[in-house]
Automatic annotation (TrEMBL):
<keyword id="KW-0149">Chlorophyll biosynthesis</keyword>
<dbReference type="InterPro" id="IPR038071">
    <property type="entry name" value="UROD/MetE-like_sf"/>
</dbReference>
<feature type="compositionally biased region" description="Low complexity">
    <location>
        <begin position="1"/>
        <end position="12"/>
    </location>
</feature>
<dbReference type="InterPro" id="IPR000257">
    <property type="entry name" value="Uroporphyrinogen_deCOase"/>
</dbReference>
<comment type="subunit">
    <text>Homodimer.</text>
</comment>
<comment type="function">
    <text>Catalyzes the decarboxylation of four acetate groups of uroporphyrinogen-III to yield coproporphyrinogen-III.</text>
</comment>
<comment type="similarity">
    <text>Belongs to the uroporphyrinogen decarboxylase family.</text>
</comment>
<dbReference type="InterPro" id="IPR006361">
    <property type="entry name" value="Uroporphyrinogen_deCO2ase_HemE"/>
</dbReference>
<keyword id="KW-0456">Lyase</keyword>
<keyword id="KW-0627">Porphyrin biosynthesis</keyword>
<dbReference type="GO" id="GO:0004853">
    <property type="term" value="F:uroporphyrinogen decarboxylase activity"/>
</dbReference>
<comment type="pathway">
    <text>Porphyrin-containing compound metabolism; protoporphyrin-IX biosynthesis; coproporphyrinogen-III from 5-aminolevulinate: step 4/4.</text>
</comment>
<dbReference type="GO" id="GO:0009507">
    <property type="term" value="C:chloroplast"/>
</dbReference>
<dbReference type="GO" id="GO:0006782">
    <property type="term" value="P:protoporphyrinogen IX biosynthetic process"/>
</dbReference>
<protein>
    <recommendedName>
        <fullName>Uroporphyrinogen decarboxylase</fullName>
        <ecNumber>4.1.1.37</ecNumber>
    </recommendedName>
</protein>
<dbReference type="GO" id="GO:0015995">
    <property type="term" value="P:chlorophyll biosynthetic process"/>
</dbReference>
<feature type="region of interest" description="Disordered">
    <location>
        <begin position="1"/>
        <end position="21"/>
    </location>
</feature>
């Protein structure tokens, strides 16, 4: 049974159980308006993970679902690992820990995407930019870059040499997950990486990177070019070692005016996409930028397969603006996971209905927040995985 249009499945939505517990209860369904057939989970014998089929526009019975930052501090099991291994660098650079942490959400929630536990900043040491991620403070770049001489010292990234643990972890994840979900890799986009290394860490005002952009653009361009070449290679390395789709995070691109985005971000994103597509034409690339409403059409110009919308964009409007050739991901407000189960259910249904059938990966509009109740995350996945178009 399939409901073929957006409006037709408004009455086929999942009815959550009264009291959601973490594990094994069977979701209840009400019937779909089209055929009146009772809809239940059925085994689909596909060789490829649902997420890849959906992104490629194949006929799928529901949207695949995973959550940005699904491995992390909202999970008790992650906090226990943090107590034993307090250093983020260690947790994200030791193969066994990377695999264990990446699999934590997989073991509990069975998402349709299993993202590598790592960070967009992980390549920096290999590029001769020393950094750390400090508890309570976030990323710290020890010697922020500000001059042509600083940029000259930045090395191009050689993943095999600098981050062999990433390749090893991806290979193991691919085997463990065994196509029951897609293994996802990710990289930071040139402008977002540049903002960290120039600002020295997270920033509110982005004044240092803008000073550089608007007074010494050549210096910034040469840094962005190094990141573009390096991240294209890093995507290829991740794909060659097991990643089945790769997300590019340009989280802070939207700090730029559209005209500046066109100069300092878009050409480098396009370059990465063009270069990866030449060697890995079948690898889906997903692009995320937070607060992207003003830039949506420009994000699509990069040539990525999927644009990940943040929650400030209405999904139906986003879909309309982007057109149906490109897939969309998102875009439930991470704050919704602090709401009631009923509210969460309604918001998922609203988002899925607005995205329409196919070419949609259900996700949050940004990373899951610290303090999110795990049982609400469990509820989110239960509801999402019971949806049928
Ligand atoms: O999604 C996942 O589960 C994979 C893991 C992942 C992390 N970082 C682990 C992490 C991913 C995909 C990232 C991407 C990332 N890192 C982005 C892009 C996504 C976004 O949020 O916009 C950015 C901008 C970073 C840089 C970064 N790393 C920041 C700003 C911080 C501090 C944030 C905080 O909440 O402290 C980090 C640290 C970090 N990376 C944590 C995690 C789980 C939290 C620190 C910890 O667990 O000890």
């Amino acid at each position: 049974m399939s409901c073929s249009s957006v409006s037709s499945f408004t009455s086929s939505l999942f009815v959550p159980p009264k009291k959601s517990s973490f594990s094994n209860h069977k979701p209840r369904f009400i019937h779909c308006s089209l055929g009146g057939t009772v809809v239940g989970p059925k085994a689909t014998a596909t060789a490829e993970p649902l997420l890849l089929n959906a992104v490629r526009g194949q006929d799928v019975e529901r949207p695949p679902v995973w959550l940005m930052r699904q491995a992390g501090r909202y999970m008790k099991s992650y906090q226990i690992i943090c107590e034993k291994y307090p250093s983020f660098r260690e947790r994200s650079e030791n193969v066994d820990l990377v695999v264990e942490i990446s699999l934590q959400p997989w073991n509990v929630f069975k998402p349709d995407g299993v993202i590598l536990f790592s960070d967009i900043l992980t390549p920096l040491s290999g590029m001769n930019i020393p950094f750390d991620i400090v508890k309570g403070k976030g990323p710290v770049i020890f010697d922020p870059l500000g001059s042509a001489a600083d940029v000259d010292k930045v090395r191009e990234f050689n993943p095999e040499e600098s981050v062999p643990y990433v390749g090893e972890a991806l290979t193991i994840l691919r085997r463990e997950v065994d196509n029951k979900a897609a293994v996802l890799g990710f990289v930071g986009a040139p402008f977002t990486l540049a903002s960290y290394v120039v600002e020295g860490g997270s920033s509110k005002n982005f004044t240092k990177i803008k000073r550089l952009a608007f007074s010494q653009p050549k210096v910034l361009h040469s840094l962005l070019q190094k990141f573009a070449t390096s991240m294209a290679n890093y995507i290829r390395y991740q794909a060659d070692n097991g990643a089945q789709a790769v997300q590019i995070f340009d989280s802070w691109a939207t700090e730029l005016s559209p005209v500046d985005f066109e100069e300092f971000s878009l050409p480098y994103l396009k370059q990465i996409v063009d270069s990866v597509k030449q060697t890995h034409p079948g690898l889906p690339l997903i692009l995320y930028a937070s607060g992207s409403g003003g830039l949506l059409e420009r994000l699509a110009l990069t040539g990525v397969d999927v644009v990940s919308l943040d929650w400030t964009v209405d999904m139906a409007e986003g879909r309309k603006r982007l057109g149906h050739d490109i897939a969309v991901q998102g875009n439930v407000d991470p704050g919704v996971l602090f709401g009631s189960k009923e509210f969460i259910t309604n918001r998922i249904n609203d988002t899925v209905r607005k995205a329409g059938k196919g070419k949609h990966v259900l996700n949050l509009g940004h990373g899951i927040k610290v303090g999110t109740p795990e049982e609400n995350v469990a509820h989110f996945f239960e509801v999402a995985k019971a949806i049928r178009y």
